[in-house]
Amino acid sequence: MLKIRPIEETDWAATWQVIEPVFRAGETYPFSPGITQEEAHRAWIGMPSATFVAVDATDEILGSYYIKPNQPELGAHVCNGGYIVAERARGRGIASAMCEHSQRQAVSMGFRAMQYNLVVSTNEGAVRLWKKHGFAVVGTLPKAFLHSRLGYVDALVMYKQLQTSYDDHGIESHRPVGGRHRA
Amino acid sequence: MLKIRPIEETDWAATWQVIEPVFRAGETYPFSPGITQEEAHRAWIGMPSATFVAVDATDEILGSYYIKPNQPELGAHVCNGGYIVAERARGRGIASAMCEHSQRQAVSMGFRAMQYNLVVSTNEGAVRLWKKHGFAVVGTLPKAFLHSRLGYVDALVMYKQLQTSYDDHGIESHRPVGGRHRA
Fold it and tell me: How close does chain A come to B2, measured CA to CA in Å?
């Protein structure tokens, strides 16, 4: 039984255990493999608008994701997300569950689209998964990622417009019309 | 006679005169049209790795650009740049001169590619200019920019691999081999 809930400060140590090996590996995220715990905290919790953890029935942390605006003000209706699943918990649909959760969360925060800026092309599982969840590869950045083992590899920009409950005719109507949007 | 030189703190007031109307217009940069001078200083000089001004023979500032890494460490070999020409000085090739200068500057700083993340599709002059200087449109982000007059419009991701003086076989050789690279 998987539950996805907002992260709390007391979750950090266990969350760091989950994300540290991924950063250290240098194969999927651009952060330095030598990143400190403080820098990782800032990147994963400090800078983002919201961070969530996926937990099992015993509240053990199996994954985490963040969401944040991808650009300043006039591009801030497009969000960016990052997702990591604990190595021991892979293949159980946790990334899928977080991806779906993050899209609903994004809509509830007033975002209209989601963009992944640097999906490493050799991370085929991730590319396949995001496609399955409706993301399109809008572009390929040649040799934009320095993979720890493989050297310079291509990275993909992936993008999805989100289903919002308000209309889509531009600036006149870009403010949420209902009461459920926070941003 | 156009000269492009590093910005100095004493250039800020004149540079702000050049870039403020562009930010206020909200048609090409994502910054809030209500951005303060302090926020603009941080974005244009504080955060970037280097900022330059284009000046005429009397040292009057006609344009400015910045350059910075587009991603953390494992994506930090790709830079991002932003360019603004004073309204009164347009049509004189200043943007072209800054674009070429920024590419040489990027190579000298050790960057291997340059990426524009959010070229507003309605800014046709810019799109044409960047193409002329060798940038490819690698992707289109549907409705990713909230244009002050036009509402949500598409934005382009543009990218160019730079000619570097060292080879291109990946991580083993990613450190500059000569003495002219600073990064």
Answer: 32
DSSP string of B63-125?
EEEEEEESSSGGGTTEEEEEEEE-GGGTTSSHHHHHHHHHHHHHHHTT--EEEEEEEETT-HH
Q: Is B26 on the interface with A (CB under 8 A)?
A: yes
- Which positions in chain A touch B170 (Cβ < 8 Å)? 150-152
Kindly report, residue by residue over B29-61, the tens digit of the pLDDT.
999 999 999 999 999 999 999 999 999 999 999
Q: Which of B115, B140, B141 is the best substitution to test chain A (most A C-beta atoms within 10 A)?
A: B141
d(CA A135, CA A155): 15
Say what the pTM is: 0.90
Interface membership of A165 toward B (CB under 8 Å): no
pLDDT band, very low/low/confident/very high, at B1 (cuts 50, 70, 90): confident
List, as one string, the DSSP characters of A23-66.
HHHTSS--S-TT--HHHHHIIIIISSSEEEEEE-TT--EEEEEE
Q: Mind listing the pLDDT tens digit for each residue in B81-116?
A: 999 999 999 999 999 999 999 999 999 999 999 999
- Minimum distance, in Å, between the CA of residue A141 and any CA atom of chain B: 7
**Could you tell me if B74 lies within 8 Å of chain A, comparing CB atoms?**
yes
Under DSSP, is residue A144 helix (H, G, I), strand (E, B) or coil?
strand
